[in-house]
Design a protein that fits this description.
heterotrimer; A alpha/beta (959); B alpha+beta (68); C alpha+beta (244); A: 959 residues; alpha/beta; Alpha-Beta Plaits; FAD/NAD(P)-binding domain; 5-stranded parallel β-sheet; 28% helix; B: alpha+beta; two-stranded parallel ribbon
Chain lengths: 959, 68, 244
Amino acid sequence: MSYTEIEGIEGEEGNFTVRLLRKPRYVLEHRCTGCRNCVDHCPVEIPDVFNQKLSKEKAIHIYFSQAIPLICYIDPEYCLYLKEGKCGICADICRNSAIDFGQVPQREEVKVGAVVLSMGFDPYDPSVRPEWGYGRLANVISSMDFERITSSTGPYSGEILRPSDLKHPHKVAWIQCVGSRQVYEGSKSYCSAVCCTYTQKQVILMKIHNPEAECVVFHNDIRAFSKGFERFFERTESLPGVRFIRAYPQVVGEDPVSKNVILRYVTPEGKLVEEDFDLVVLSVGLLPPSGIDKVASELGIELNEYGFCKTNPFDFVEATKPGVFVSGSFIAPSDIPEAVYTASGAASKCGRLLGYRRNKLTVPKQYPPEREVVEEEPRVGVFVCHCGANIGKVVSVPSLVEEALKLPYVVHAEEDLFWCSTSGTKRIMEVVKEKGLNRVVVAACTPKTHEPTFMDSIRMGGINMYLVDMANIREHCTWVHPLEGEAAYEKAKELIKMSLARALLLEPLELYEIPIDKRALVVGGGISGMTCALDLAEQGHEVWLVEKERELGGMARRIYWTLEGEDVQGFLRDLIDRVYRHPLIHVLTEAKIIETSGYLGNFVTKVQSGGTVYEIKHGVTILATGAVEYRPTEYLYGKDPRVVTALEFEELLAKRDQKVLEAENVVMIQCVGSRSKERNYCSRICCGETMKNALKLKELNPNCNIYVLYRDMRTYGFKEDLYRKAADLGVVFIRFEPEQQPVVEQVQGAAERALRVRVRDHVLGEEVEIGVDLVVLAAGVVPAPDNQELSEQFKVPLDEDGFFKEAHVKLRPVDFGTEGIFLCGMAHYPKYIQEAIAQAHGASGRAMTILSKEKEVSSGIVCFVDEGRCMGCGACAEVCTYGAILMEETKRGKKPKVIPVLCKGCGLCNSECPTGAIQVKHFKDEQILAEIDVLMASDEELKDIIDKKIKQNKGAKAA
Amino acid sequence: MERQSLLWFFRRYQHYDVLVAGGGISGVQAALDLANAGFKVLMVDRRPSIGGHMAQLDKTFPTLDCSI
Amino acid sequence: MSGVSRLQYPTDLRIIRVMCAGRVDLKHIFYAFSKGVDGVLIVGCRLNECKFITEGNYHALNVALLSKRIMEHIGLDPRRLWIEFMSSADGVLFAETVKKMVKTVRELGPIGNGKVKERLDEVMRLIPYIKIATREKLRVKLTDPSKWEEHFTKEEIEDLFKNVPSYWIDPEECRACMACLRRCPVGAIDGGKKLIHVIRQEECIKCGTCAEVCRFGAVKKLVGQPVPPPPPEDMRTVKKAAEA
């Protein structure tokens, strides 16, 4: 339900009552077809909210062009009829009587078992601080405005123009941390975590649009802490004409003539500079969703001190009220992959809670049995749509119907105002039945919107759903040729002809089913692996948990506290205990994967453990193999016992070691083994861990002097407060450049050879020498050494740094390209314990979408092999990135075998195949070429050509 | 009598397994995963369309993919 | 998106839907030209933005680059073939591309039915051979646009066409074992028990499967020389029978 507010939730987990308020759209959802005729005729222009008010919309409009649902709504604030009772043009125009000015807000109550809060965030509004000039100076815009400006659906159709004069800006500045990190007055204390990288993206887009552009980014620390971000930063920084300046500028004003914006800032060298820019972009931070306080109290959940959702300290996806889960930026400002995996994680949590009622409320739709049509003489129905006035206004629909009836094998043609409407789809179903149609052409809009609708209606009519083809005479014709009626009509006729040719060659396709083995294999017994195993076991699935070490726990065995001060060891003991006690979890320690084979739902893996080889059958695989701490070779590590890694130091802290309690000077060096040439990524957690250790050290030994030598402090999100707290407690932060690494050395001559650190301080501009008792190296996280072997065994890729590579870095963060295999935890990238737990829930949530089913059903559009035509070259199997084609030995040499459920129907194999032996169903060469044939054929030739094609097609099938 | 009140109960309310509040990328993902795992889901968004902020973004980093 | 935004472009375009640009086959392109289509436009997703892991758009790019070189070779103006990468939101780009393309193709005029048509039919016949010969290069991911131009060179394509092989069964060596006959993917081999096998040259797709499966080395690959005529029908009894 869109355009609906939640007014309140009562009850408890398993049985909530939710009160909803549906706001009036003044448009009947079931009648509006999204044709936009009303929008064209509406006389009232209003600012387009979706385009950040940079462009105009009408009072009746669709929220944005790809909106879901794709239906109109009326803004009552502007509508003349709703305000003054005048106008009402839209109601007259609408051919489907979808306008209803009488709508009122409707209250509704529903019962649910669990709630997932994915309320997102609001961008910081810089107009609350007048000093930014936002809203006052035309050429000061927010980063959200910039997003809309670069978008091809945005206010300037994708041209980057500045608002004041709609000219291309050449000199553009971005100001970071607007609204975040208490950098400027009125800002939030936390770091919004996403702005550094989105700004870099915007700089790159700016440079793509205008390679000559001069771009300046005024920044604090650059926080490129996620997968691939460090390289992305380098790429941005190395572009010509791009400057990154560590400074906090002020908006002075604008040039009255040119409207350029003047910024004043102090350079890192201490010089005061005024510089003017064509356009200034404020990189605004993320705020909790507006009005959340009220919502939270109605929902009965607590918020944290920042106004985001208060969560379980170990488990981000749990809100404070049982049965209420949370995902995305409502947990904390976060990026898209976090939003995706926390969502899957919340889904998994709901599954644990509501497993007993799975599949109870969902009822699969019943279809009549399918008629056999292959041997029948073709009988085609052509359904031509007016689409309100969208099509009918430009071309004559009745004549198209008349022409269609003249085409070979067409036994029925009909027009309708909207074939996609409920009555239209029902009519198609009836005609299919009555006239015994066995092929259907719908000449209407793009198959992207309504193909599934029509597939469903012919299926209801009793024939296979793949026997329909759509001729797109709207997007491809009347919408783009509105002024060329004659030519558009001819084109529409041809499009119908092409579609007919294709339809005649379409074949009924079966949906493929494979049984799903309900068991799971989890590789890696760290926190991620155990969390994932428990999730699945709690939902009733047998899990094999395989760990290569003797004990479960992984990296967490060496961690004592979380950043927030929670006891990790206690948590870990409890987790291990629950894993061992769960009757459905089989733990194999000191285990090694010997080999693995199979595919989604049907894997077989051999695991050796304690002298026994287990052959495990499982439906899904989860890789949670973790990562390891970098072993430094620099800064005298291993040569002087006073140089330790952060994890070693944490252990000293935990044991209250004398070395720590008596230390007078401690230096902590960041980025050891990270952000280097060999490992060009940020290890993400070291800055936060260092803050944690520094604060702990201050607590145990308040008089100790702590120096943190860093490059960029990357305490993103709420961790920023730890950084501030450390600074307040007197921890000294010294920034160094990668070219001028600190030096750790033993001072010769002293009785007990003293340890000394030298570093160039960039603020003072001189070298500092510190005599120290301990040096703590923030050693980075490096991929586990056996990743390579696992990647080959499971046929899943590694990224350039050696971590596992997910299917899509943003949208599918816990999936692999190969279906049925998932990843989580540090195997993916370095991350904090809570992040790993959330991601583990995410992996189990994704796995449950498979394990909860008895069988997996896949599309009928898959490849098939004509073995007779196959020369056995294996090209198809080599190009298939989904592993859907296996080469198998037959009597006539090696031949490919397609695993239909894995096939995505992309047809790459088809294009590679020299002989056309492997083809994608529904997009076979003949089906594609037939469209070209009829396009180029004269009316007289048409029937012959079509007959020839049908014969060929049948012949090929018989062979 | 009990049967009657039960019937009333089921008529009075629409029943779902899970309510997903918010139709941004996170809400959509949660709803899809839940529905694919056999649950009946009600997704509620206060805007006229789902999609959230991500629909407003032109491209996403670091791959520069288009958002929609 | 052009549609939704009501952007206008010339009416000369007909769109054929495929599920992925990688599905666009050499065969489709040359078939269209041979049927008299004056210009072909391939539209794929933006490079590096594959929503799946297929990256068929890079494959389409290679197919287009190769096709352009072949077109050049047979005297068909390569400006008749266009490839553009765009997202579903790129309505403006699409409309602009179509406008530019239609203008170019109009200037070039109709493709005609002359000599080019003959050469196109020849290319159609050779597609299996071309696909096999260029297989490795068709799979390369050309991330650097400066390398596109020279990915396939003119000389390379000339060589490709100069070295078109013919497969011929030496009647002296053939032992009528039926192996090649059974394995020919297009059924272009005549023969039978104790009958010398003969390849029907006009149907042969030059894949070389016959040569690969012949245990007696009877199938010869001939390059740059004429194919000897087959023995007359009445003289096809094998001299050496296949050993069991």
